[in-house]
Write a structure and sequence with these properties.
- Helices cover about 30% and strands about 25% of the residues.
- It has 2 domains: about 1-40; about 40-110.
- By secondary structure, it is of the alpha+beta class.
Length: about 110
Amino acid sequence: MGWSRRQLKEQKVLETFQERISITVGLALHFQVAIGEDVTSGDMKTQIVLSDAEFNPRMMEDEFSQDRGGFRTGRVRVAGTTGIGLQRSVKGSSPLVLSKPKVVLCSALE
């Protein structure tokens, strides 16, 4: 007795998935070689900023800084995170910030 239509369809889906994931992984490995990186173990950590934190331009990015212009004086508070930051940590070296979290300041909501 042969395979049922459902089993054949499931097998085809699995084969398609395996083919596509193999292509994706292959491209990612080629990309790493192209940018001069070997495969190294490390951690990727997401970064957010909690509400009411003090704004620090070295650690975060003001989403609407162009709209207001001018120099900020005094303590500026964060209303919330609008874009998640990304940091790469490799054992034995300093963390590398790939993307700062984007925030909206309380003053932008006034």
